[in-house]
Design goal:
34% strand, mainly beta, 230 residues
């Protein structure tokens, strides 16, 4: 077979076991912390969480310099727990969902907030706001056995100042509920990542900012915002 061009190399995420985790798809849960839903002008008692998708190639590793993207003047951080899927499943019962989980990591869902809000107000898709190059920094993936995802502090500092503080216990949809819900729409496969939502305190960054996210038991994720890519 002759290819018209060389295919893109697989996106590989590091794990604490020394293995590389091939990333397949990204599913991102929105408004999964009540306080964040309210700061975004929504009522979590009437509007449940939901999910959207992103490209695997938006993943970048810990320690990266991420480009400030074009077409925005309001680029926001969102710290999140990330679920790494290691087994296949469709229509998975909540009680069986942990069996699909390979591990967990600290992640960021960087967002062109101005474009996201414009899309929300006009009822259009969020792709330009959320599916952005280098917008999903990801720390090393820890084995599932090393974390109790039902509780634990989750924080984000910008230039040494605490901006986001929450606890995994505040998730509206728990980790097993998230896995079960997404599996009702797509057959989950090894390599899928699920970003579980962000606590309150989101805000903008500028070039030169250093972001440090942390989750109890999963270490830290550090990235710096650089100039726009050419």
């Amino acid at each position: 077979m002759t290819l018209t061009f060389s295919p893109m190399a697989p996106i590989l995420a590091p794990t604490t076991k020394g293995e590389s985790f091939p990333v397949r798809r990204l599913f991102c849960i929105g408004r999964n912390y009540a306080a964040h839903a309210r700061e975004m002008g929504r009522d979590p008692d009437r509007e449940p969480p939901f999910f959207f998708t992103s490209w695997a190639e938006t993943i970048v590793p810990d320690g990266s310099v991420i480009a400030y993207p074009q077409s925005t003047t309001d680029y926001h951080y969102e710290i999140e727990l990330v679920i790494a899927i290691g087994a296949s499943g469709r229509n998975v019962p909540v009680e069986d969902a942990p069996g699909l989980i390979y591990g967990y990591a600290v992640g960021l869902d960087m967002t062109r907030r101005d474009l996201q809000l414009q899309a929300r107000e006009t009822g259009r898709p969020w792709d330009a706001g959320k599916n952005v190059e280098q917008s999903k920094p990801l720390g090393p993936i820890y084995p599932a056995s090393e974390l109790d995802p039902s509780k634990g502090a989750i924080t984000l500092d910008v230039n040494g100042t605490r901006k986001q503080t929450g606890d995994l216990a505040e998730l509206i949809w728990s980790v097993p509920e998230i896995v079960a819900h997404v599996s009702a729409f797509y057959r989950l496969e090894p390599g899928d990542l699920i970003f579980t939502g962000t606590p309150a305190g989101v805000g903008p960054v500028v070039q030169g900012d250093t972001l440090v996210g942390a989750i109890d038991g999963l270490g830290k994720l550090t990235v710096t915002v650089g100039p726009p890519a050419h």
